[in-house]
Amino acid sequence: SKAVKFFTITAQTMESFVKSLSEDMKQQDLDSEENQFVLALAGIVTNVAALACGREFLVSSSRELLDTMMHLLGDMKPGLCNKFKVLMLMSLYNVSINLKGLKYISESPGFIPLLWWLLNDPDTEVCLHSLRLLQSVLLEPEVLARAGAEVRETLPFQRIVALSQSRHAELQALAKELLEDLKMFEYEA
Length: 189
Hints:
Leucine-rich Repeat Variant, 11 helices, ARM-like, HSF2BP, 0% strand, HSF2B protein, mainly alpha, ARM-type_fold
């Protein structure tokens, strides 16, 4: 029960942090104690989600935290709080390794539009981890059967093509791999 309380407080803290960001904030103070504290909390969640038992716990007992992270990713402006976004995306990707976790995340209202929103972020790491999460959805037949129509209708194909030409080698390789997956996806449709 203490872990559930901890993750509830973590979700509330992350949400408060994002709400406290001023609208005209151009450059975030990465060294502020608040920023470092929130990054540490996000890092703890990412590490917990990296373990099979942690993924299971998060999807079974801390769905509020998962919902909060998806909501916050959609609320933050492109280019803002990139390290925080990357840690949340890594957590969601880790949770997506668990089939129950992937189903929960992919069934969340607005999940597919959220991925498209994040793929347009100017930060390459945010785009990289968004592509990884998208690939989780595309490679799981049971989840794809449910989300496939929405993915087909709204996929920002040109953005993925542009990412496949990125100078960032890892992002370029993953985008190319995803384009190959998408060819198979269209063939199966």
